[in-house]
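Dear Dr. K.,

Following up on our conversation at the group meeting, I've run the structure prediction for Bifunctional UDP-N-acetylglucosamine 2-epimerase/N-acetylmannosamine kinase from Oceanodroma tethys. I'm pasting the input sequence below exactly as I used it, so you can double-check it against your construct before we proceed with anything downstream. Let me know if the numbering doesn't match what you have in your notebook.
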Amino acid sequence: EVYFKNLSKQKQKEVMEKNGNNHKLRVCVATCNRADYSKLAPIMFGIKAEPQFFELDVVVLGSHLIDDYGNTYRMIEQDDFDIHTRLHTIVRGEDEAAMVESVGLALVKLPDVLNRLKPDIMIVHGDRFDALALATSAALMNIRILHIEGGEVSGTIDDSIRHAITKLAHYHVCCTRSAEQHLIAMCEDHDRILLAGCPSYDKLLSAKNKDYMSIIRMWLGEDVKTRDYIVALQHPVTTDIKHSIKMFELTLDALISFNKRTLVLFPNVDAGSKEMVRVMRKKGIEHHPNFRAVKHVPFDQFIQLVAHAGCMIGNSSCGVREVGAFGTPVINLGTRQTGRETGENVLHVRDADTQDKILHALQLQFGKQYPCSKIYGDGNAVPRILKFLKSIDLKEPLQKKFCFPPVKDNISQDIDHILETQSALAVDLGGTNLRVAIVSMKGEIVKKYTQLNPKTYEDRLELILKMCVEAASEAVNVNCRILGVGISTGGRVNPREGIVLHSTKLIQEWSSVDLRTPISDALHLPVWVDNDGNCAALAERKFGHGKGIENFVTLITGTGIGGGIIHQHELIHGSSFCAAELGHIVVSLDGPECLCGSQGCIEAYASGIALQREAKKLHDEDLLLVEGMSVKKEEVVSAAHLIQAAKLGNTKADGILKTAGTALGLGVVNILHTMNPSLVILSGVLASHYVNAVKDVINRQALASVKTVDVVVSNLADPALLGAASLVLDYTTRRIY
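The predicted C-alpha cells came back this morning:
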C-alpha cells in the first residue's frame, strides 16, 4: 500500500512538472440544480481541501436561482463555497420551447464567464439541458471537459443529451462497469475513462447512523415513525408530457387512498412541471393532513428521509440509484428510468396507467427492508476522481480522439449486400507458412491459401498484399462480402495502431512494422492486427469452448507456447501489450535456456522446439529409437518422434514428456492463482498429449478453491485464422472488441 501511495505521489509530481512547477489545475464546477449539486458537492469539497493542487471556481445557473424551486443556490453558500458567477438562464414557461430558449440563453451568457475564468478544465454532470449548454460552450472555447455519469442508460430525452455531452467531453467519470463498457462501445478512449462510482455515495454510505428522528419530525410531523412514511418525487417525461401528467395524477390518487404520511417534492424545471404543480394544487396536496409538499430538502437531510422511509415512489434517478444504498423499497413509475441498473429493492411499474396498479405496488413494497446495494459506488469515488484530475497533462493535445478503425470506403446497402455472406479476410503469419483465408460469419473457412513465409520484410509484405488481393477477388465468386482484414502474427503487437512492435525469433525482420496502413490502403478495407495467442483466445470466445464464458484462458502448445486471457468477456492486452505471454512463466530457476534468454520458462520445457531438442539429444546418444521405429538419414528428428517413442515404451522419452507436462501444469496453476478463470483451453498440436498431465498437476498443486476449473482441449481446427477473422467480425457487426 505504501509503495503504491509513493508511486501515486511520484506520478502527480511528474504531471505537475509537465504542467509547470507552480501551475495549479484551475477547475470550474458548474451546477444547474439541486440534483446535480448532490453529486458535485463531494468533488468540490475534495478539490477545496487540496489548494496546493487545485483552484476552484463555482458557477451557478439554471433552477438553482428560481424561487419556485427553492433558491437552492443558498445551500451552496451554506457549504461555504464562494460562488464566482450566478447566471439566470431559465426561461419560464415549463414547456418544450422554454427548454430550448433556456439552452440558447445559457449559450449567450456562458462565453463571457469562461473568458474571464479561463479554467483548465470544466466539470459537467449528467444529462440536463443546462449541462448540454455548458459542455457545448466549453468545447467550442477549447476548454477540457470532465463529464460525470456518462455511459448510463435511461428514458426520455436525457439519454440523447447525456450521450451528446459524452461526445463533447475529453474525460469521463462513470459509476458502473456497464456504463464504462457503453463509453468504450461509443468509441471513447479507454485511457480517459475512470470507473470511480457515484460521488454522492461517498456521503450516503457514511450518513445512515447520524441523528435522523429530528429530521423526520421536522419535515413530516412529530407523530411520524421510521418506516411508516413515503417519499414521493416525480418529474415530467419530456417526450410524453400528457401521459406523465396523467400518471402523476394517478400516483397522487393512489397515495391518498393508501393513507400514509407522505413527503412530496416539487418536480424539476422540465417541460410539463407547471402542469404537474397544477395537479398537486387541484387535489389539495399542499393542505392535505397526510401530505407535506416542499420545493427543496437539503441533500444531507434528504438522505436521512429516504434511508428511513417505508417506501419511495416516483420516477427520479435518485430512487433507482442512491436509495439502493439503504435497501429502502422503491416504486419506479413509467419509462423515465428505463435501462438504469437497479438493485432488488426497485419494483418497476412501467405502464402505470391505473390507480389500482400503483396502489397494488404500494401494498407490495411499503415497509419492506431489502439488502443494501452498492451498484453505483463503494464510497471512495472522490479520492479516485481527484487522483484522475491530478494525472491530466495539459500539454497533451486538446483534440480528442475516437477509438474506431479507419474505413476507406462506405459499403452501400443494396440487394447484393443483403444476399452475400458477411465474411472476413483472415491472415496467419507463422514461423514457416503464411496463410490467408476467407472466413464466414459462422466460422466456416470458405477458401484458404498457403505459401511459405518469406525471410525478408519486403518479400513478406509483398506476398501478404498479393494473397489478400487474390482472396478478395475470389470472395466475389464465392458470394462473400469482405468486411475487413484480421491479421494474426507472432510477437508483441500494438492492436490500437496495427503495428508489430517486436517479433519472435521464428519470424525475421518483423519488428516496428506497420501492417494496418499498407494493407488498408491497398484493399480499401479496415485492418485489425493482434498477437497469435490473443487471436486463439478470440477464436475460442466466438466459435469454441469459450463462447459465453466470462473468464477463461487459452494456452497454445505448438512450436512455441503462447496464449490469451479473456476477463469479463474482454481480451486483456496489458499496459505495454505484453499480457498473456504465458509461455514465459518461469517454473524453475535453473531450468533449460529459453529462446527469450531466460531459464526455466514453460516454453523451454513444453514447446515443440524444446521437445525436438530433447529428441535430438536422445537420438545422438542412440537412446531414441525403439522397436517399431526408424528415422531416415535425411529425416529431421522432431517432437513427433519423441512422442512416438514414448508411446512405444521408451522410458526416457516418456520421462521427458512427463516433465514437459508437469512444467505446463505448474504454469497453469500459476495462472489459476493469478486470474482465477473458470475454464482453461489447451490448443495446438501438443494439447491432447498434455491435458491429463495438466489436470494431475492442478489436483496436486493448486489451491482447493481453483481445483474445480475445467481443462479442455480445443475443438477448433484453425484457431489462428478463426481468431484473426473474429477481430473483424466482432467489431464490424457487434462493436464489442
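Two things stood out to me. The two ends are 33 Å apart (CA to CA). The CA atoms of residues 673 and 703 lie 8 Å apart.

Best regards,
J.T.
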